[in-house]
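To: structure subgroup
Subject: Chain for Friday's discussion

All,

I'm putting the inputs and outputs inline so they're searchable in the archive.
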Amino acid sequence: MTFYLDTSDYLALDVIKLLNNPARDIIRVRLDKNYDSILLSLYTITGQKIQELQLSNPSDIVSMNINVTSGLYLLHISNGEKQVVKKVIVQ
């Protein structure tokens, strides 16, 4: 997988917020506006995708149940056109 840095491809970093970081068994995300669909993908720090959740017409706060060991993870949030990546600490 290759990623290129082009700011037009990213959702606004300051308006999509993780509500619980560090997290335990649920990651909660506040979205900046209404989207037709959102894809949440959780990756290890080495880039292995370990979990994915597709939501249609999500509310402004979305939750993803997780069952992973403690550590640092990357949460990719995409609306199909743009994406943002957030660091998540799991306790």
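Points worth raising on Friday:
The domain at 9-90 is CATH 2.60.40.3080 (Immunoglobulin-like).
The longest strand covers residues 37-44.

D.
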